[in-house]
Description:
The structure holds two protein chains of two kinds.
Chain A: H1 7-18, H2 22-29, H3 33-40, H4 48-57, H5 66-75, H6 81-93, H7 97-107, H8 114-126, H9 130-143, H10 150-163, H11 168-178, H12 187-203, H13 207-228, H14 242-259, H15 263-274, H16 284-307, H17 314-322, H18 325-342, H19 347-352, E1 363-364, E2 367-368, H20 371-391, H21 395-411, H22 415-428, H23 434-454
Antiparallel strand pairs in A: 1-2
Helix pairs in contact in A: 2-4, 5-7, 6-7, 6-8, 7-9, 8-9, 9-10, 10-11, 11-12, 12-13, 12-20, 13-14, 14-15, 14-16, 15-16, 16-17, 16-18, 17-18, 18-20, 20-21, 20-22, 21-22, 21-23
Chain B: H1 2-21, H2 28-31
Organism (chain A): Paenibacillus agri
GO molecular function (chain A): DNA binding
Protein name (chain A): Helix-turn-helix transcriptional regulator
Amino acid sequence: MEPTTTITAQLESFLKEKKITVSQFAEAAGLHTGTLSNILNDKKTISMQQLDKITSAMRLEEGHFYDLYIQDCFFHSSPDWRRLGPYLNRCAELNKLDYIRQTVHLMLDRLSYAPLLFEAAEEFFRNGKRAAALILYESLAETEKYQHSERLALCHYRLFIINLCEDQDLNTLAAIQFEPYIDRLDEMYQLDALNELINVNISLHRWQAVELLSQKMGHKAMIQYEQSRGQSHPYNEPNKPLVFYVLYAHLSLGNVYSQHGDYETALEYADLYGTADWVDSPSDEEAQIIYQFHEWSEANRYMYKLMRGQAEVLPEYIDYLSTRQDEVFVGLCRIVAASNTYHFNIDPVLERFDSHLRLKDQEGLFGEVNSLITMDRHTRLLAELGLYYLNNKKFQKGILLVLESLESSIKIKCDSAILRCVGLYEQFRHHAPAESQNRYTILIREVQKLNEKKIGFSLGYM
Amino acid sequence: MKRKLAFLLATCSILSAVAVVGLPNPSNDSEKPVKTTITINSHGVGN
């Protein structure tokens, strides 16, 4: 068992060992001699700033005494937010997450600290210290007394955002855990939370959830829009003008119907978000949004017609895409899928837009397109392209693309995409060169590992 | 004798049927064009 000690005891030993006087050390550390004496005589609790100065003067690494600080200031004496706040901040800066966890654990019984911890979590979240924020939000959510409090709902919203990653299984879990809290959020956050949740569910292909959430978002946004009319500065505004959420709800619903192969209804929705004549004298920002949705409506009309087998719209669609660089990637995804369904040649299109086939962040009027959706799209585009070349008897190229898609499907842990690639490869495996066969063996081993992990077996598979 | 004749006739008819239709070739399936089963999200999705 290690002997317990205190920061002041260690400082005293240091001064003794190095034969330095208190005033000499105080000068080196940039502290008043009186202050240092009071600290050494336990008459004054050490502040974070003083602790960092002392640590630096002792030539120790930053945060060296942070574990002892928990014992000295929060465990053996009554915690004070004047010390606790700066301590949590420094731990977050130095990424000493274990210390944050220990400290927050000590605070959990003191419910009066909850508002302060929540403020700290919000600050961490705003400043991009997400790992630190996560610990605070999780602890607050666990100890929240009132199940319907807005703070609890906001904690779950933040946890949902922080937990999103490339892994679709984890994203499904994050979405399911957050869904029940949407209606408990403050109105100010509800529409953005619905928007985020819809996008995550789209990337997960949970179409029923997308449909319900889109209906909810459209309904809520329309009510808020009606209420805000005539008010110069409506309170509790979401991130974007309300018209965006109404139109995006229609677009998302149209997308759901297109996924089910109901292109007629999808086209009806395209009309709904293509014209927003219900908006009274739109502002410049609103007019820009309305125009953007009008553009998407036009593009999606081409797309849905193409998916219905109307190959004659392809030249017009290509013309449309060639003047709108932001839309080329999505357009290509659909064109390849349509060509695989109706078997028309798209070699010139692929050649023309070759540079758009690589994975890169997609930008638009509203900033970056949801990266989870872009990853999912690209994974599926690779498989569709592979299939296109396989159908056209360009077997090596096709197999290579199917394997690339398989690798990407494993990365995002998407079962349906993995199965699709395995099915395609197995169908054409006798055309695969030795190199591709080896790559497939390695990848299928990864699939096996993933599967065993999922069903709870050990990871001993070789 | 009649039974043997009936058996021979049945065997011949099966063999001739196989000769007409042909044994399934595992590589034939892959030569058929495959339709797509996955659709990709519309323009504007992900914003």
